[in-house]
Amino acid sequence: MSVTNETLKTKETVAQPEAREDVPRPAVSLAMRWVNYLFFLPLVGLATVFFGTISLVCGVWDENGRQQHTLARIWARVLLRVALSPVTLEHAERLPLGQAAVYASNHLSYYDTPVLYAELPFQFRILAKAPLWKVPFIGWYLQRSGQVPIDQSSSRAGVVSLGRGAKTLEAGMPMVIFPEGGRAFNGELQTMAAGAAWMAIKAQVPVVPLTLVGTYELLPIHVYALRPRPLKLIVGEPISTVGMTTRDAEALTERLRAVIHETYVADQGSGIREQGLGIRD
Questions:
Q1: Is 162 a domain residue?
Q2: How far apart are CA 151 and CA 165, in angstroms?
Q3: Contact 114, 87 (CB under 8 A)
Q4: What helix, strand, coil percent values describe the chain, rounded to 5?
Q5: Among 95, 114, 118, 127, which one has the highest count of C-beta atoms within 10 angstroms of its own C-beta?
Q6: What are 220-230's pLDDT values in tens digits?
Q7: In the beta sheet, which residues pair with residue 207?
């Protein structure tokens, strides 16, 4: 079994499309900007520092990360309340509770992470870029809470990182991953790296497609102002990896991407372009 360079592609190694003129970013009124400056953003910052500090302290004795994860869930729910954006979890019965799995989601906004922490009812780990471990405060939390770094400095380092993620899954801990590698520009579903599928196949655990709806409109990339609205997290049918080899990672990734796209289209209907998520030819 092997890992190809394609498997290790991320947003840093794949050229991204230029801004599309036919899909404008959501406009934010002057009044809403002032509401953000005076209310939303200060509260988000305070909540993050407050719960982050407590989590770091808990990290001194919380070896399994359970307390830190609970604090992350509370932090996430506070941020969603501050944003006045309730979340609906659809098809929760599809969650394979009690076993490890790779939960792969589209990535539309900084608010995707709070939605996932708030709505997924179990402890999990995230796969995050290794440079974040060098950032004061953020890196300390990632290290103490047992998150998994992905080193993109070379193919060899990437293979080691994916292997570390597979071992986390084999130990019984679910993982949440954004296969696109970064937030979608203009809300469009981007090419997905095959690393998530590779880890799931390596550990022989299912892949669960997760479709986020509404977070792009709430907080688009490069727009630092919240626009409150209802959000959705739609759980897809788990995809078994039993009998697959890592050579099947590319095909599994394409299947995963198709499911997420089709789910979003089904939810948004003919208004998909206006709502912010499309699919490129």
A1: yes
A2: 12
A3: no
A4: 50, 10, 40
A5: 114
A6: 888 888 999 99
A7: 102, 239
